[in-house]
Every structure is written in C-alpha cells, then in structure tokens.
Automatic annotation (TrEMBL):
Protein name: Type I-C CRISPR-associated protein Cas8c/Csd1
Pfam families per record: Cas_Csd1
Lineage per the UniProt record: Bacteria, Pseudomonadati, Bacteroidota, Bacteroidia, Bacteroidales
InterPro entries: CRISPR-assoc_prot_Csd1-typ
Superkingdom, natural source: Bacteria
Amino acid sequence: MILRALYDYYHRSGDLPAFGMELKEIGFIIVIDKCGNFLRFEDRRIDKKSAQQFLVKKSVGRSSAPVANYLYDNSQYVFGYSDKGNMESMRKYFDTFKAKIKEIYNIFSGNEAIKAVYAFYQQEPSAIVEIMQNDPLWVDIVKNLNKKYSTFSFLIEGDTEIVASQKGLINLECNDEKMTGKLCSVIGKYSKIVETTTATMIPGSSQATAKLVAFQINSGYDSYGKSKGHNAPISEEAEFAYTTALNHLLRSDSHNKFMVGSRTFLFWTSSNSEASKLSENSLFALLGRADDPNKRIELVRRTFMSIYNGTLSANKDDKFFILGLAPNSARIAVVYWNELPLREFAGLISKHFTDMEIVDTRKDKKPYVGLHSILGNVTLGGKSSDASPNLPDAVVKGIFQGLPYPASLFQACIRRIRAEQSVNIVRAAIIKAYLNRLTDNNNKKIDIMLDKENQNQGYLCGRLFAVLDKIQEDANGIHSIRERYMNSASATPAMVFATILNLSGHHLEKLNAGGQVFYEKLKQEIISKLDANGFPAHLDLQDQGRFFVGYYHQRQNFFTSKENKETEEQ
C-alpha cells in the first residue's frame, strides 16, 4: 500500500521533521522592533526558484474558508495585500491571521517575540502596507507574489531565529482526544482522524493544491452518510508521516526521484541497509539527471549484480518501491506503483543492462541504458520530455517488472531510423532488447556483436546493406546508398537490392585489389546464406528491426576488425 510504504519511510529516515512540523521555504522576512514597528524586509531567496527553508509548524489544509498558518503565511494573510484584488477584499484573510496571532499571544503572553508581533497587528493593514511600500524590496516582492517561496514570517531586531521557528511558541503536546477516535486505515490504530489532507507541490504544477488522498463533498464518493476524510479514515499521525515523506522525496535536490516529461517517479527502499542505500544511489545514477553518469555506469551495473548474486548481502525482507505521479489540479494522479523484494529488483535492473548491451567501438563510451537516453533517441527533438505521455510509463514498467519493452518504443525507434537513416548505438540496443524479450521462439536471439551464424533474412539483408554502404564510403567518401535506399531495403529488399548491388560493382572498381577481394568475399558469404529464392519481397516490422541491428553489427565489425589489425601490426 502506497500510504503505508510512505509512512514507514518517514519513520525509518530519522532526519525528517518531528510530528506537527515541516521544512518550509520562506522567501521574505519582516524585521520588526520590540514595539512592533516595521523596520525592513530581508530577502531569504537562494535563486529564482527557491528560498531558505525553516522548520515551522505544519501548514494547514485549505478549502474555501480562510485558515491561517502558524506565524507565517502569504501576503494576503500576513499584511492583507494581493496583486489580484483590492485590500478590502483581502481583509478576511488578514483578520484570520490577526486572530491567529491573538490566539498565540493569549497562550504565550510572556514571550517577548509574540508581544512584538501582537503589537505589529494593532495597526490597520493599509497603514502596514503604506510603510512597507517604502522598502527597497517592495517592488521585487510584488513581482513574485505567485512564487512558491513568496511566504512571510517575522524576525525581531537583534534575534537570529525567526518567530515561526521559535520552539517556545510551538505547542505540539498531544491531548487526550487524539488517543481515541476512529480506526486509521493506514496504521490500524484508533486515533483522531483528519477530515482534509495536506496538499503537495509536485513538478509540473504551479502551486500546492493537489492531494494524494481527497474526497470532494457531494460528488458521489460519499458513503453511508460520511463526508471528507471519514470515507477512508486516516489518523493525524499517519497523514503527517506520509505527506512529510512525500514532500521529502519530491524536494528539488532529491536523489530519490527522476522525471520524464510531466511524470515524476519516486523510489525508495524499506530499510537503511548498505544494499538498500547503494541501490537508491545507483538507480538515481541510472535514471536520474546525475552530473556525470559516464563515470558511474559500470559501478551501477556492478552494484545491482552484486545484490542480485548475493555478493552484497540484502536483508530477506528488504523491499524496493517505485511510485509514478502526474500533476493534477485537485488530486495527484498515480500513474505507476510497484513494490518488490530488493534482490528481485536488482535482478530486473541487471537484466535491463544485459538486454540493452550491444557492441560499442567508440573510444569515449557513454551509457545508453538510462531512461532519458532511451526516450530521447526515439523522439523528433532528441529530448526525453518530447516522448508521448504514456511511453515513459510503459518503458518504466518494462524495466522494473521485467516485462517486454513496449511495442510503441520499438515502433518509435524504427520511425526515427527511417526519418534520419541513422542506426546509432542506442537505437540498435533498443531493437535488440525489444526483440529478445519477445516470446517468439522462431527466431534466434540477437547477440551483443556480429553473429555470422544468424540466418534470419532481415538480419542478413541488414549486414549486406552495411557492406554495400561501406564500399561506397571507402570508394567515394559518401553515403548516398544509405540516404536513398535504406528505408526501402529494410522493408522490401527484393525491389532495391539488385540496383544497389549493381552500384556497388562500380564502387568496387575504385578500390585497390586487396579491398576488392575482401568486400567481394564478404558479399558472397552473406548472399550464400540468403534464401535460394532470392531476396525477401517483404520484411515484417520485427524483421525490419533485425535488418537495422544486422546493419549496425556489420558496421561495428568493420571498426573492430580495423582496431584488431592495427593492434597486431603494433
């Protein structure tokens, strides 16, 4: 269950905010003196998108009625100002926050900080704003009121800690009513139930309005006369734990997430074992936006192989969780969820490595098994974010569940090859992996490198086409055969191979005697393995894929043979 897994993650992490607290980005601090007089604004922004985080009381859930946060909030509440309405229309928010300040003052009247804030709110909001408008930061603040960091709190002149973070003003004591109530569906204990859950900011949404669990009133989801959260009771403790864990995993610098387009995928393990920690770090290096994945890709491979074969011991009960989310205005859409034993997960990742492995003759070898690389190579713009919305979900399912890679990935790969007449290492790896995971036993599995025993007609046609392409390259330094004939040769070989074989004869004449003998022998070797009736009239889509892999294998073999020859000569 998703909520239970997030709840457990909160408790095993050990460094997340205590119950009732949260880390909140507060971009602007209102500095006042001990008499409550406004002195200045302080800018606590880190960059254009983020600000300093402060440990404060957990933010409240809001619907239509105004509800104030504890000693911090947006401009509407804190000083009754908005760029979208006049101050009179903001008055209800200001009065709500002012009432909250009075409530806190009545409890902690001896605290000097709350005395100063209470004195500040003895002024009218118009008078407060009039003074603030003279501050040098005012213009910049107004421009950024819609940013998530546009939150305000107070600092008393001479203090180092903002008022909202002062432990002496925060009462988190549990009362007796929390010990009774309804049975929580997450942790199975009787406790006080939340009616509305906390909204969460996820990538792709402009503000924190979406919730993982929510019930809209009178919309057909109510049952047995129950409303809001009582339809699926969640205790305050469980709600706080899972929302805090979710926000922690979603933070901007999180290494427990990766993104593809509008999709955000979160992953975590059930324990703090060494194997668990290494698997989390490795998956981020494989699928996330790591600074330099080239240096780590082999380490990632070894890590998962070690967990799978038992070299790196994992606890029997260790599990791996993957959660896929998509933004929505009211409820977070769960697009993917999977939980499985850590060792089994490591085996599936290792299988992905094996399936995607293919010969690479480049000097600067780069990883090609990552999700972004795979998706980027089947899109027009070369960006993973340009992939169709459902494709990332399907590829993730293939990797994480060991299922066949989606046909849509294979088809998109074929389309890009046809559009560009280019079979690079990633595309060849995708085709190999897709075809090898199919359950069709009528065709031989594709090897990592050139397989001279492979009798598949599509594969042989691809090999032969690579030879003819290389002859033209050696003779003239161009690839007009590839540019003009690759698409038709891969789909209807019988229609074009007679033509390009004739062209290659002219190209061969421009080579030296040794080259002529070499290529002629290679041509005949491949042709001799083709069907006695001649070239196939038509290749289905799978055999077209084998054609492109055969082409890639043969091209790479030319480079491999050259390297071996140079090594022998040395």
